[in-house]
Write a structure and sequence with these properties.
Length: 390
């Protein structure tokens, strides 16, 4: 055998033969299943030299917490756990697989497939996918799929595959307790991390340092996604922030802080009982789309005046309806009131109609087009907001 092949040999690690009896919380069925699985794995080989496929069994611990057996298996060795996995034929599932494939091609395969074991009478075993069915499907779509290559596998050996409810509870719990990254986690990571991305290209940390500072400054009154939305104009996705490509347009730097001051002001005055997260998100979207979007930038003094007028309208709406509108249909109604102005001199204020690029919006009917819950576009106007609220 060549020196290269010797260097690539990975002996199996099987530390259980002398200590299996110390699994005090296992019943006889589980011990039998463990012994069968270990024996089966010990006889698996790969490569031209029939080397043993490595597997790792974690020995017992004082808390009697079982750990999976880690090994490598070919894609063709898996079987579907009928009735346990989610429906793969939905559009949502297809979209998820497209994202998975894109991520694998971008950063590599960094995961494992969790399986339950079904014991056959002849001593063989069947690996039933409990968690990772989409990953397996995506891997078969790659150009290397014809090789039937090996992937990382964690065998949840202490669960009985015949106990469908137990397996279902296990998988749903795994998915439910996983802690997803919040938007603020992305901001903090990009603000404090290395300035090189996966491909060695530069990452501009300054925008994320600024976002981090503003999130901290407004944390007592505004949620992080609302603070970030004041800079991005996004409703909820904030894709550029999550991907680390977010840039700040410093030519309208002061506009961002006027939005933050507006949001802080109405929250201080009305509180979270009247201003829900959905309403605050829409304020960011609508203010960006109508007043500071691309070529439709409103003069700064007029922008400040418009936000003051909007604050009055929000107070009036909440006075009459108690809560700010959380859906686009009613938000559009409130926005129409804001754009149209009125001659009401209550509280000593007269609100003038908002005029943008010479266009008045008195005739804007605020009805979402196609009957959908999307931001309505004004009629007969040079300004056509692009919806991010869909």
């Amino acid at each position: 055998m060549s020196e290269i092949k010797k260097a690539n040999r990975y002996p199996a690690i099987n530390r259980l033969p002398q200590s299996r009896k110390f699994f005090s919380n296992l019943n006889q069925t589980q011990l039998k299943q463990l012994n069968t699985i270990v024996e089966y794995l010990a006889n698996r080989t790969w490569g031209d030299d029939n080397e043993q496929i490595p597997f790792i069994v974690t020995p017992p611990n004082q808390a009697d917490v079982p750990f999976p057996i880690s090994t490598r298996c070919k894609l063709s060795e898996f079987d579907i756990f009928t009735g346990l996995n989610r429906d793969k034929d939905t559009q949502k599932s297809e979209n998820h697989k497209k994202k998975l494939k894109a991520s694998i091609l971008k950063i590599g395969y960094c995961d494992t497939i969790k399986v339950f074991v079904k014991l056959n009478s002849d001593g063989s075993i069947v690996l039933l996918i409990g968690e990772g069915q989409h990953r397996r499907d995506v891997l078969t779509l790659l150009d290397i799929a014809g090789e039937d290559f090996y992937v990382n596998v964690d065998i949840l050996w202490w669960h009985d595959s015949e106990n469908w409810k137990d397996c279902l509870d296990t998988i749903t719990t795994i998915n439910r307790v996983a802690m997803k990254w919040a938007l603020v986690d992305y901001v903090n990571a990009y603000a404090t991390g290395n300035e090189k991305d996966f491909k060695g290209q530069g990452v501009d940390k300054k925008p994320f340092v600024l976002l981090k500072e503003q999130i901290k400054a407004y944390k007592k009154i505004l949620h992080p996604p609302i603070v970030v939305g004041a800079f991005t104009g996004d409703l909820s996705v904030h894709k550029e922030v999550r991907e680390g490509t977010f840039k700040i347009d410093y030519s309208i730097y002061n506009y961002y802080f006027q939005i933050l001051n507006f949001l802080e002001g109405i929250m201080t005055q009305l509180g979270s009982d009247q201003l829900g997260i959905a309403a605050l998100r829409r304020f960011n979207v609508y203010i960006h789309e109508w007043f500071i979007k691309d070529d439709y930038l409103m003069e700064f003094d007029k922008f400040k005046s418009a936000l003051e007028s909007l604050r009055v309208v929000v107070n009036e709406w909440c006075r009459d309806n108690f809560i700010a509108p959380q859906d686009n249909v009613n938000f559009n109604k409130m926005w129409k009131t804001f754009l149209n102005g009125n001659a009401d001199k209550s509280e000593g204020r007269t609100r003038k109609p908002i005029v943008i690029r010479g266009e008045s919006y008195k005739k804007w009917d605020a009805v979402p087009f196609n009957g959908l819950d999307k931001m309505a576009k004004p009629k007969n106007s040079a300004i056509v907001p692009k919806s991010k609220a869909a």
